[in-house]
Structure formats: C-alpha cells, structure tokens
Amino acid sequence: MPLPVIALDFDGVIADSARESFDVALVTYSQFYPDSDLAAFKDPSHPGRRILFESFLEMMALGNRAEDYALALKLIEQGRSVEDQESYDAIFLEQDPRFLGDFHHRLYENRDRSRNANPEKWCEAVTPFVVFTEILKRRCEDACWSIVTAKDRSSVKLLLASYGLEEIFKDSLIFDKSLGRDKRAHLQELKGVVSVPHQEITFVDDKLNHLETAALIGAQCVLAAWGYNGDREQQGALRQGFKVASLDTIEGILLPSS
Ligand SMILES: [Mg+2]
Predict the structure, then answer these.
(1) What would the pLDDT profile of 7-39 be if each residue is shown by its tens digit?
(2) Domain positions in the chain
(3) Cα(17) to centroid(ligand 1), Å
C-alpha cells in the first residue's frame, strides 16, 4: 500500500519561530522607521517587550510571510486592532507593494546575517515543538513527509538538522518561500513529485487562510492548534469542515491506524 502523503508547514507546526521572527522583524522595522517608538523595544530588557510580543503573536495568525511582520508592527504602533482575516487582507492590499517587497528582502538579509554569523546560536532561538518532532521521528517510515513553507530553504534545512529531522524530509519534498505567498503553488509542485491527486494529500498548517486556499484544490486540511492561531481560527476551521489537531490528537489524525 502506498504511504500517505503529508505536507507540513514549518513555522508554527514544526518550529516555534515566533521569538526569532519578532526579533528580526523589530530590527528590520527600526531600519525603515528609525524614529518609531517601537525601535526602543529591540532592547531585550525593555519592560514593554512582552506585551508587544503578545500583540505581534496575535497579528501573526493573520499574515503569511516576512512582509506581514511590517504590517503587524505598523498596525500595533498605530493602535489599530483587526477583526478578522478579511479586514486584514483589505488593509494588506492598501500597502505599497514596493515597501512590502523591500521589507521582505531586508528582513531576510538581517536573518541571513544573524544565522550565518552564528548558526548554532541562531538555531537555539528557534526551538522545535518537541512533542510533534518526536512523533515525526517515531513515525518517519509511515508516511511520505513533505514541507511546504513560507520560510527560506537554507533556514529550514539548518533547523531540521539541528532538530535531528534532516533524514525525514527529502530535499525534493521541501518547497520554500520562493514559490510565493499562496501554498497552492507548493502543493501543486508536491503533487508533481509524488504523483498523487491533491485529494490524497493531507496538509497541516497553523494558518487558517492557507488551509482555505489549499481546500480549493482538494487537499485534506488540518489546523495545527499548537501554532500561531487562536479560538477565532480554530472555530473557523471547524465550521469549514477542517480537522483541528492538538499535539495530543495529531498522530491519530495523520496516521489513524496507530
Ligand atoms: Mg505557519
């Protein structure tokens, strides 16, 4: 019997990257807006950092990639709250695409610099979701495991190696940010490599908006509730017929015979 094909998002599913993303986003934002009040929050001892981080985490549930961090920080600085995905997407479309592209580029320059300067230290800042990575190690032979991510391949591969997962994901089954914001492109590429229809691919992501687009092409969608989402996204996922998995239920959902 062929192995089930399981496509995993990286950040918020395998890796808890929120702290590192927050740090590099703040550095990048301060380069674009040196006079911003947020620039002072780069200091790890700033008393308001924890609250700013929590607001940033809430916004992370609505964004997709590095450029969304710029919008998240801008909205927080302006004291604006965002009701739902639709409102966020409308605000995103109002932004200058050139600025978003420049921010994305600059953030990756900053991330690459910090990662290359001290790869070990950089990896320590992006911890794995250990319960899930232990499942991957234990069940590595029971599925065809793939990664579909908005992160860059170099960072993903470095982190996979530091988590001891590099053997589980074949290079040809890692699809990274170069394929764009919409993960349908990643799943399309995966379908080409594994030669199974989308309906036979299970897709796990912590962003509801990615599941919604993946469902349009027929992928079986699972929301990772341990990632960057909240009650709003989990209820939305259930309403649309997606499964919502916790770290306790994910193994049984992905590999039901276990
Ligand atoms: Mg994610």
Answers:
(1) 999 999 999 999 999 999 999 999 999 999 999
(2) 5-16+127-254, 18-123
(3) 9
For 96, how many CA atoms within 13 A lie in the half-sphere containing its CB?
A: 5
Ligand 1 centroid to Cα of residue 192, in Å, is 23
What is the pTM for the complete model shown?
0.91
Q: With the C-alpha atoms ordered 33, 36, 40, 46, is the resulting torsion angle positive or negative?
A: negative
CA–centroid distance, residue 35 to ligand 1 (Å): 31
- Spell out which residues have Cβ within 5 A of ligand 1, the ion: 9, 11-12, 206
Confidence of residue 224 (pLDDT cuts 50, 70, 90): very high
257 alpha carbon – ligand 1 mean position (Å): 26
CATH code for the domain defined by 5-16+127-254: 3.40.50.1000
- Ligand 1 centroid to Cα of residue 227, in Å, is 7
Host H or E run for residue 116:
helix 97-117
Nearest 10 degrees: Cα torsion 143, 181, 54, 246:
-20
The mean pLDDT of the chain is: 95
Each residue's pLDDT tens digit, 168-188: 999 999 999 889 889 999 999
User: Residues 186, 3: contact at Cβ < 8 Å?
Assistant: no
